[in-house]
Amino acid sequence: MKGQLVPVALLPRYSSFFGAAAYATAPMNVEAYCKGTMTLWRGPLPGTSTPTFKAYFEDSHDGVVWTPFNPSGEDPGEDVAMVVRFDLQRRWLRVRVVLGGTDPAVSCFAVGNLELRNPEGGGTP
């Protein structure tokens, strides 16, 4: 039986990042949830030398060591949205945006739903 879906915005519309670096959201406690479905969108990537974008949805037991659901990252492409699905097995969830190249910039968002473990709405199975 499918659990109740709870809306969440990991990166609100339209989050902007400037400069070649990794940008991570604050960890979110997801103990009460078993799955996630996120819509990831990004706009153009201006920059002077081959700008790159990758988003990594990651979970962690301790909030220190992070494991990406897809180690190669996600990039939907310019002005395109993609759906990212993952199973939650650890306590914490975050998204990390990594920009590369010279003087990159991007606007993006990651919004969707988390599914409660207990169909009646409780946090435990």
Lay out the secondary structure:
Elements: E1 5-18, E2 21-24, E3 28-29, E4 33-42, E5 49-60, E6 67-68, E7 80-87, E8 92-102, E9 105-116
Antiparallel strand pairs: 1-9, 2-8, 3-8, 4-7, 4-9, 5-6, 5-8
What is the gist of this entry?
The protein is an all-beta fold and 125 residues long. The protein has strands at 5-18, 21-24, 28-29, 33-42, 49-60, 67-68, 80-87, 92-102, 105-116. It has a single domain (5-116), classed as Jelly Rolls (Sandwich).
- Average predicted local confidence, pLDDT: 93
CATH topology descriptor? Jelly Rolls
Q: CATH class, anyone?
A: Mainly Beta
Number of domains: 1
Helix content: under 10%
Keyphrases for this structure?
125 residues; mainly beta; Jelly Rolls; five-stranded antiparallel β-sheet; four-stranded antiparallel β-sheet
Overview of the structural elements:
Helix content is 0%, strand content 60%. It is an all-beta fold and 125 residues long. It has a single domain, classed as Jelly Rolls (Sandwich). The strands form two sheets. Strands 2, 3, 5, 6 and 8 form a five-stranded antiparallel beta sheet that branches. Strands 1-9-4-7 form a four-stranded antiparallel beta sheet, with no helix packed on it. Strand 5 and strand 6 form a beta hairpin.
